[in-house]
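Researcher: Good morning. I'm working through a list of sequences from a screen, and I'd like to move beyond sequence-only analysis. For each chain I'm collecting a predicted structure so we can compare shapes side by side. This is the next one on the list. No need for commentary yet; just the structure.
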Amino acid sequence: MSFDTLGLLPELLRAVREQGYETPTPIQEQAIPLVLEGRDLLARAQTGTGKTAGFTLPLLQLLSPHASTSASPARHPIRALILTPTRELAMQVEESVRTYGKHIPLRSSTIFGGVNINPQTKALRAGVEILVATPGRLLDHHQQGNLNFSQLEILVLDEADRMLDMGFIRDIQKIIALLPKSRQTLLFSATFTDEIKQLAAQFLKTPASVQITPQNTAAELVRQVVHPVDRERKRALLTHLIQTRNLEQVLVFTRTKHGANRLSEQLDKDGISSMAIHGNKSQPQRIKALEDFKKGAVRVLVATDIAARGLDIDMLPHVVNYELPQVPEDYIHRIGRTGRAGSEGEAFSLVCVDEHKLLKDIEKLLRKELPKDVVNGYAPDPSIPAEPIQAGRQGGGRGRSSARPARPSAGAASSTPRGARGWHPARPSSRGK
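Model: Good morning. Structure tokens for this chain:
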């Protein structure tokens, strides 16, 4: 199947071809016709499946009949709202809107926290038809009287499960209460949890359902491996792997903001250019770090889970779990940053004795045992006992007053008995099981 068979406008097909795409992905093939029919949609799709184009292309087409070149703000009311969980994703979605809508005179803009609100206010007052926003800053603008949703036609909830995880449920409910009831609603989620189903039942009207990837299944093109190592030698092993394998463009995940900063500084001292990205960084700092990483000016980007679903980096070859996440599903989202759009990727995890329970939980979710590869010279000392992992979870944004408490940690002290032993250096790898 080609894009020509999906019923898209010539202007949109031209923009798609200019990006070098000829064949739609499964989510695009199934979602675009349903959205063009005006149906509400409940779609399950992992990041990297082309879902953004799956809703931006038909959204642009539905709005195009009333597109105007007029300079009058009144001719450019908010007609579509796209809610995203993170600032980075908001920017990337709006970039997609601009890319595919370049031949249609529709105005788009993005609003998110962490930056001066005044330029956003100016853009809104000038007229915006497609607004991409994070929930918190959107409500800030509403409180200041900068928003009018009376002519809104389409609402998109992108990565809805992530927004719920980050405590945005009440914000979402407040926002939806501001919107016209007669609208088209599209909900995209990587997982269909009970909470997502409840959200869909509350806000979608007889939705069509599209499910592209099996729930919680890691990308098939990602080669996954575990490197057992002592906790105090993780940084040395990471440096060794990057240098001896000559790895470029490596996305490294830590559990905490402090840990991300510390690791980035240590890598710099080892001669490996690195920057950290997390919630405590200002928006300009985060934008610069991502841009430098994309263009190769920075070799390693160290991130907390705020980046797990908020970053879109073409052909990212390597993801490293410097520390395993405390929520097994977050492992899926982390490694999903590579192996995208048909390209192969590699995800390796540096696992110490403290994290054995976390690894077991991940393998249970994946329904397979991950291959273990002890790197020569970095075999873990079996006499080192496990230590408790600090409970809690690093969020990716503000959940305002509605933020729900973190789920119980799988890696809490009680789940990893003190004195548990690590992999024995002589123990053979269990590759491919």
